[in-house]
Design goal:
By secondary structure, the chain is an alpha/beta fold. It has 2 domains: about 5-35; about 55-260, Spore Coat Polysaccharide Biosynthesis Protein SpsA, Chain A, CATH 3.90.550. The protein contains 9 helices and 13 strands. The strands form 2 sheets. Strands 1, 2, 3, 4, 5, 6, 7, 8, 9, 10 and 13 form an 11-stranded mixed beta sheet that branches.
Length: about 325
């Protein structure tokens, strides 16, 4: 093993890297008091942005669903008053051939009755395709449903994704103000309860609001200006050459309830990643999850042990025991 590999494999290197990532997170969210005060002191006064007519945006949201339905109602409620149309493209069989939970169809119909969902679309996957390819197909179906209902903007979401009301409105205003084709924001990952997050969050981005043009579509693995899951990319930037907006964490951040589930092993087994995780690994992660107590390290899908920090509760999501 050469010196570079030895350094990178050392516990000191791992600790130092995680501390730097956490410091970056605090800086991005403007959460260090002395830095915040200095920024406020030296910041030049800027003109108040011109008001935006939000009625110019008819925003449709399409959920991609197989599991995590226990979070769906809460996720929709976090955005419902700020969107015009909500549809759910759902599966009875997972990417890897596992059946959905009993009662999912009844739950979805109940959310329709509550006017939280406007349309349901049952999709049966072709297992000749990879999980990522199927996910991209489903997102295109959701996009088309939004287009058919007269939406001029679209957003693809999963049931474990949440936004605060203030940041969601800001994001809509900015997309209209700059006439952007695509928005991107970073995410924060939660573990077991909506007060515990990864100390060193993942560094990739998630696409947010997309302008709907006549040829807007999701294209698997199309080039993207930032690091995004391949099945969540549209052609708005690479092919349609529309401008894009990258949001800072202090402006807009997706709250990802990644590891808050009734059945965490099922989530891992049925990941949209092209390679399914084994039952042995899924059960090992699930056992750690079941017995985990703060401030222990959590076990992520790849068996990595990661540090957790406690944050104020912003969403009414609690452990599913």
């Amino acid at each position: 093993m050469n010196m570079k590999k030895k350094v990178k494999s050392s516990s000191l290197y791992t600790w130092l890297r995680n501390e730097i990532v956490y410091l970056e997170l605090l800086l991005e969210r403007n959460e260090i008091p002395i830095i915040r005060q200095l920024r406020n002191f030296f910041q030049k006064k800027t003109k108040t942005p011109a008001p935006v007519d939000l009625s110019a945006m008819k925003l449709g949201v399409a959920y991609n669903l197989f599991d995590s339905e226990e979070l769906l109602e809460y996720s929709i409620k976090s955005i419902r008053k700020n969107v015009d149309f909500v549809c759910v493209v759902w599966q009875k069989i997972s990417y890897h051939g596992e059946p959905c939970s009993d009662g999912m169809e009844e739950l979805l119909n109940d959310l329709m009755k509550k006017k939280l969902i406007d349309q349901l679309y049952l999709y049966t996957p072709d297992r000749a395709n990879t999980g990522g390819e199927i996910s991209s197909i489903k997102r295109n179906i959701g996009l088309e449903l939004c287009r058919q209902h007269g939406c001029n903007y679209h957003m693809s979401m999963d049931a474990d994704e949440f936004y605060t009301d203030k940041q969601f409105i800001f994001m809509k205003e900015e997309m209209l103000r700059g006439d952007y084709g695509t928005g991107y924001c970073r995410q924060i990952q939660y573990y077991k309860d909506a007060i515990y997050v990864l100390k060193s969050p993942e560094r990739n981005y998630v696409p947010t609001i997309e302008k709907i043009t006549p040829n807007t579509k999701y294209v698997y693995y199309i080039p993207c200006p930032v690091d995004v899951s391949p099945e969540r990319k549209t052609n708005n930037v690479a092919e349609n050459e529309l401008p894009y907006r990258i949001f800072k964490r202090s402006e807009c951040e997706m709250h990802h309830m990644t590891f808050i589930r009734k059945d965490i092993a099922k989530k891992i087994r049925n990941s949209s990643l092209d390679k399914a995780f084994s039952s042995e690994l899924s059960n090992k992660v699930a056992d750690h999850y079941k017995n985990w107590k703060y401030p222990q390290k959590c076990m992520w899908a790849g068996e990595n042990l990661l540090e957790i920090v406690e944050v104020p509760r912003q969403f009414d999501i609690y452990p599913f025991e």
